[in-house]
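Technical annex, item 7. During the second reporting period the consortium partners agreed on a shared format for inverse folding records so that results from different sites could be compared directly. Each record opens with the tokenized structure and is followed by the designed sequence. A conforming record, contributed by the partner at site C, is shown below for reference.
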């Protein structure tokens, strides 16, 4: 039987009661096949699988979609039951942030560029809630998606700096057949926006192709992506070192994180690839994204 728990004492009791390894998959619900890939991987690699569903208010900026973020708890629980998940933690904001709450985890430099620059406070909210979930559930392996690459770098940095005794697994982005990365926010798109949004992955692939052919000029790699985007408004296309997110300004043969955000109406879509493209595997992502500094 899958346990569904919404309180902290029950969660701690569940954790104390299980023997063997625990894998955690933190989510905001509205589950799709991308989330389920993380869950399946956790199921294959752990004795116990815990999924958390929490739309975390502190990681939304004031002008973002916290209120209208898609929620579908019934449907999510059915999917997780079918994946043979052991425990689902579904706290309310009041459980996670009771009156008087005033502590936060700030991961400095790697939180600042890219999404952090456009979403002030976002990674502070993410790092704080993930630190709480790690403390509450003491997992052996935590599963995160490549799609939120900066999040992976931030969480790995936090786990190392604060000595969380766990492994961070990075799972490659799951895509629709036309390449669009699965996202709970895709449901906001009109049919026309949805069709145009496939240009995001086409742009990333075009850059990967010329990189494979030897192109190393950062401005050319970025420009190929920009020129591929149809319909939406490109917020940024960026090249960074995948280990610590330093911006790339010179030609280099070292691995690159190519990431972008495109706005279709009020919907921001985020995507990325590692270059060279052969690195977009669990092994490649784990070795390079937020890799330990030597
Ligand atoms: P979210 O519910 O959006 O916070 O996502 C929960 C986890 O699922 C995060 O680690 C995401 O990076 C991951 N995720 C979201 N979309 C995808 C996708 N298309 N492929 C793989 N992982 C994903």
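Designed sequence (site C submission):
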């Amino acid at each position: 039987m899958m346990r569904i728990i919404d309180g902290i004492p029950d969660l701690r009791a569940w954790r104390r009661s299980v023997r063997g390894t625990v894998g955690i998959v933190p989510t905001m619900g509205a589950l799709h096949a991308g989330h389920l890939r993380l869950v399946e991987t956790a199921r294959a690699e752990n004795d116990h699988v815990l999924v958390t569903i929490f739309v975390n208010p502190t990681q939304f900026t004031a002008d973002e979609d916290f209120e209208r973020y898609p929620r579908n708890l019934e449907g999510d629980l059915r999917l997780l039951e079918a994946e043979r998940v052991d425990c689902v933690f579904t706290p309310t904001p009041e459980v996670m942030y009771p009156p008087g709450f005033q502590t936060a985890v700030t991961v400095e430099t790697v939180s600042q560029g890219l999404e952090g620059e456009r979403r002030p406070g976002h990674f502070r909210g993410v790092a704080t809630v993930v630190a709480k979930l790690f403390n509450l559930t003491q997992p052996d392996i935590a599963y995160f998606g490549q799609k939120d690459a900066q999040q992976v770098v931030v969480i790995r940095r936090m786990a190392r700096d604060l000595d969380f005794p766990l492994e961070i697994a990075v799972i490659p982005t799951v895509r629709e057949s036309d390449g669009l990365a699965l996202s709970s926010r895709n449901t906001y798109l009109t049919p026309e926006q949805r069709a145009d949004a496939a240009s995001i992955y086409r742009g990333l692939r075009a850059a990967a192709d010329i990189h494979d052919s030897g192109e190393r000029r950062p401005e050319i790699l970025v420009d190929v992506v920009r020129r591929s985007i149809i319909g939406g408004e490109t917020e940024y296309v960026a090249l960074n070192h995948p280990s610590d997110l330093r911006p790339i300004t010179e030609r280099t043969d070292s691995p690159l994180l190519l990431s972008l955000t495109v706005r279709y109406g009020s919907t921001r879509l985020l995507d990325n690839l590692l270059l060279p493209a052969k690195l977009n595997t669990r092994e490649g992502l784990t070795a390079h994204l937020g890799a330990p500094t030597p």
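Strands lie at 3-5, 22-27, 48-53, 87-89, 141-145, 167-171, 233-240, 256-264, 267-275. The pocket of adenosine monophosphate is lined by residues 27-28, 34-35, 37-38, 144-145, 147-148, 171, 173-174, 181-184 (CB under 6 Å). All partners now use this format for quarterly exchanges.
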